[in-house]
Design brief:
- With 332 residues, the protein is α/β, with parallel strands linked by helices.
- Helices cover 35% and strands 25% of the residues.
- The chain contains 10 helices and 14 strands.
- Helix 1 (10-19) crosses helix 9 and helix 8 (175-191) packs across helix 10 (294-317).
- It is globular and about 60 Å long.
């Protein structure tokens, strides 16, 4: 994997740190609108090429993967252009702003026999796999609670009257797409698409959600997903069954500590040795790339598509509109 990155935020630093642990993967280039914002990352990770022109990045013959970590609303166009130029794509969550955008990308990727991945750490974590292997011990599931709340460093700016990207409908921001999506992936990768979806949100006057509760109704149980960027909380997941419960400490995004409670027994489940959660998704993506397993990639895309459908339905249930809802979709 010869990767170029788009974006210079903290997640890119974390991504490049994970990439350093993957033997067959290298970072060939970093893109930023301004060279000076890319320089610290390039120097830290010994990357020789910096681009300030995306067309030049897409044309680079040394690059066969593009990792996209730009504001949410830019994901679709940047991924589309990368695919059009024959590059495989890893795109940060949320994959796209709308279902239509993702369907366009999936169609183009398949047309060109390219790999397209959503970078959602949770579903690739070893401890998440342990949850899947042990969840049947809980008996009939009756209730799930997820809370992932993190007071945003940008929230004070919002209170001052500014509009940071993460709280801007123009950039497809908000608590649901930025933070509650981890909870949604946690539940849906275990149990599939819910029968009904409701989203109740605390909204800023600009229409964006700063926090909210997502209710997922399944045939035999209810899932409750809380995501807040305007407050902190004790982050956790609780899966409650008739024979016991499973507790994920610190929230769905890292699955750092998993405790299985059965009657009077308590068992800790742990198979994670790496602190950087992005390492495990990169391990999975590299394995698919090295084995040329397009089938596995497209299975993941089908799953991501189902998540984006629920995400969009939840957003619309709360009356949250993005600028992207009105944009014309490209034809592949």
């Amino acid at each position: 994997m010869k990767i170029a990155t788009i974006g210079t935020g903290p997640i890119v630093d974390k991504f490049l740190s994970a990439l350093n642990e993957i033997e067959e993967a290298t970072c060939e280039a970093i893109y930023s609108r301004k060279e000076e914002t890319a320089k610290p990352l390039a120097e830290k990770f010994n990357v020789q090429t910096i681009y300030t022109d995306l067309d030049k990045l897409y044309a680079d013959p040394n690059v066969n993967f593009v990792y996209i970590a730009s504001p949410n609303s830019l994901h679709y166009d940047q991924a589309y252009q990368a695919l059009q130029n024959g590059k495989n794509v890893i795109c940060e969550k949320p994959f796209t702003s709308t279902v239509q955008e993702l369907e366009s990308l999936i169609s183009l990727a398949k047309q060109k026999n390219l790999l397209l991945f959503e970078a959602i750490t949770t579903i690739h974590l070893p401890n998440y796999q342990l949850i899947k292997e042990n969840i049947n011990k809980l008996g009939q599931i009756k209730f799930i609670q997820c809370n992932y709340s993190q007071y945003s460093s940008k929230y004070n700016a919002l209170l001052r009257g500014e509009t940071p990207n993460v709280f801007n409908p123009k950039f497809s921001g908000g608590a649901l797409t930025d933070i509650n999506i981890y909870n949604l992936h946690f539940v849906m990768n275990l149990f599939g698409t819910p029968q009904t979806v409701q989203y109740k949100a605390n909204k800023h006057p600009n229409g964006i959600d700063t926090s909210g509760i997502l209710l997922l109704e399944y045939p035999n149980f209810i899932g409750e997903c809380v995501g807040c960027k305007d407050t902190n909380s004790l982050n956790f997941v609780l899966i409650q069954g008739e024979k016991g419960y499973l507790h994920v400490e610190h929230g769905a995004n890292g699955c750092r500590k998993v405790i299985l409670h059965l009657e009077d027994k308590e068992v800790e489940l742990n198979a994670q040795t790496e602190m950087n959660a992005l390492y495990y998704e990169m391990l999975a993506f590299n394995k698919i790339y090295q084995s040329k397993d397009l089938k596995k990639c497209y299975e993941l895309l089908d799953y991501s598509h189902s998540v984006i459908q629920v995400l969009e339905a939840a957003r619309k249930d709360a009356g949250i509109t993005f600028d992207a809802d009105l944009l014309e979709i490209k034809s592949s």
